[in-house]
Amino acid sequence: MKLTLSSRRHHYLARLSIFLITVALIAGMVGCEPSCSCTPPLQYDLTIYSTTGGSVTTPGEGGFTYDAGTAVDLVAEADECHEFVNWTGDTVADPDSATTTITMDEAKTVTANFALLSYDLTVDSTDDGEVTTPGEGTFTYDCGTVVDLVAEAEMGYSFVEWSGDVGTIADIDAAETTITMSGNYSITANFGPFAGGSGTAEDPYQLADWYHLDNLRNFLSSYFILTDDLDFGSIGYTELASETGNEGEGWEPIGNLTDPFAGSFNGQGYEISDLFIDRPDEDNVGLFGILDVAGVIENAGVINGNVTGYNNAGGLVGRNDGTILNNTYYTGNVTGNGNVGGLVGYNFFGTANDAYSSGIVTGQDNVGGLFGWDRGTTSDSYSTSSVTGQNNVGGLVGKNSGTASNSYSTGSVTGDDNVGGLVGRNDGTVSNSYSTGGVTGTSNVGGLLGRNTATVSNSFWDTETSGQATSDGGTGKTTAEMQDIATFSGAGWNIIAVANPSTRNLSYIWNIVDDETYPFLSWQPV
User: Fold this and answer.
1) Going by DSSP bridges, is the β-strand pair 108-116/43-50 parallel, antiparallel, or unpaired?
2) What residues does each domain of the chain span?
3) Does the predicted TM-score (pTM) go above 0.70?
4) For a Cys staple, 514 with which of 103, 264, 342, 497, CB 3.0–4.6 Å?
5) What is the pLDDT of residues 251-303, one digit of tens each?
6) Does residue 382 contact residue 353 with C-beta atoms inside 8 Å?
7) Which fold has domain 43-116?
């Protein structure tokens, strides 16, 4: 059968369609453009590991699949106290770099390697001590190790502080502490004659034991503060301030005629207890021997003392040319020959304000509860000491050639010539003061003053408690009158009545519980 032209055309198109479909099926890509590559790309596996001390953060750890030729970023991060070392296994771009790449041209395995860090600790010390743990020199420790530090001072010195790379030291002020090794460190144990400070007004030397106090004598123009009470249990007491210290002589006074104490000593309210001095042949004896004109002692208390000297003997200072102030006191016994006082033996043009003494004072000439001989200025001070002597013996001052004001004494006074409840012999000025203690003597004996050659004003004594009806100066009053505010306000005293003995009105020099107590100084301890 003969096909027409139209039939032949349809037959041709049908065969062409079958051919094209067959080609597409053979290629496996029906609908693919003839120019498209239809072969799947090659792929490879990348396996990543890490050792202890870190991890691979990019792309992570484990197995990953990438197309052939892919450049894969690798990032390794070390844990604390570790460091990245290298990549091992198949080749990476830079095996020594924590951040690098690997090209996937075959299946590959890599490992990030880490190592524990170690650091050097260099330990040194200043003179007068050593580091016993771990020792001195250079030591190597794993990172994170907590190293014990122990510093020991030589006798007479103290550990002060650690210096250098101290950022991880637990306590730089402690002789026994620790340091945590997180770097290379160099540290020094510092020792010195004091617990701290540099001796300036802004940064005084710190005194925390008897050795520190003793070392003060080598820095006589510096500034000092007590930072703790000192007593028989404090370091250095047996060697320096006890009955067996210094071959039985006890404490060696600080400052002498050649080198007086010209610095500043602030007790900060701490007390020095159990001071023992037995130097009966020495002058200028006390905790301090001589206080220079530039010297200052304040807020300092010496209690339960036992001091023996010859001339110029005092519990706190043998001879004072400087300033004593702000609740400074001595309690205990003082024994000597001439110029013997509970607080100061000889106040040679010095000043004492807000000071007091209590105890037993014994001597020959110029013997007083507060001062043996006062040629300076005394104000707002008192003494409750019992006083015994021969000539010029007083409850507050044995011999006064200076100025005493707003002060009082209450202790008993016993002597031979020039014996007074407040002052034995007055060649200076006494004002706004009083005494109440019993007075006993042979000649020139008075309730307030034994002998007076100068000025006394607005001052009183108790005629009943003193046992003395007369005085070479001052005004005698009964006990009732001595406890009556009118007696003192009428004399122009700066005084006010308060509710009870524990109450203080600091706006006035004197306080009194009217009709119950004698006047007392507003600053004095309750």
Assistant:
1) parallel
2) 1-32, 43-116, 118-192, 483-526
3) yes
4) 497
5) 999 999 999 999 999 999 999 999 999 999 999 999 999 999 999 999 999 99
6) no
7) Ubiquitin-like (UB roll) (3.10.20)
